[in-house]
């Protein structure tokens, strides 16, 4: 019976892997997504399911293509050992080498793995708290993950479930950090060291607008470890990331066939602290084509606000349903982040060119 049970469990994991790959292809036909958290209804009361840290599993994984569970890594035990030895943690399951970066090719330049204190004189896990502006895209094509990460910052309960606050670069620093993700029906704790890929002293991938803030870069590294490499994060859906950050389920809406009450659905989702994102269908002929309104096709956006606005619009009276979107990739040379406020039917009414307003 045990052999049969193990076989069925492994078969289930393989099925989920295949389904995940198929979901990436299906995502190209979807232009909107909403994630709702799991709720348990108990009489007239509704409570969010957020397992305690005690119920979490710890996991380490390596390799690409096939997920193979490796040795268990306990954050507290490893940190205590490093502090006792006076050493900084070096993760043997996700080493600082090319295998952790790419699986299909070799880097086209020399990549140096550096710890934050080698990049800046004053590394911080958080700089004046955390916000969606701490999430900026680098060279990796994982905008879907960045959109989900930016959304995560809007709910403190969810954020600190994924990003445990018991870590910093000062007290009890040992070069080790950990993050929690929802996988196969369980919360797991992923441990990483703080060696990050850089080129000419600059972080290559996810980073903060603050040069000495590193929580987002380390979160991306932990997620890359979970999937086998940084390259494994290239291409995906925002819903995948939001599910892994919340343990919730997703709802998809194609705006070509959207229900008439879609705005009410979005508005209620905001009231429930749901995470939301959207995207435009990609142009098959042009990679990341930009529309005349400034939107990038095939790119993931965070929805940062849903509201009714009183604005002057020709041939229109009353309040207009609007959504505010943010693209963490669109960073202009002058340091300004460009975003948009959009009418629900897709008409662009206003562009935002303010560093911290989107």
TrEMBL record:
One of its GO terms (molecular function) is calcium-dependent cysteine-type endopeptidase activity. InterPro entries: Calpain_cysteine_protease, Papain-like_cys_pep_sf, Pept_cys_AS, Peptidase_C2_calpain_cat. The keyword Protease applies. PROSITE patterns: CALPAIN_CAT (PS50203), THIOL_PROTEASE_CYS (PS00139). The active site is at residues 143, 299, 327. Pfam families: Peptidase_C2 (PF00648). Keywords: Hydrolase, Protease, Thiol protease. One of its GO terms (cellular component) is cytoplasm. One of its GO terms (biological process) is proteolysis. Residues 88-329 form the Calpain catalytic domain. Belongs to the peptidase C2 family. This is (Mediterranean fruit fly) hypothetical protein. It comes from Ceratitis capitata.
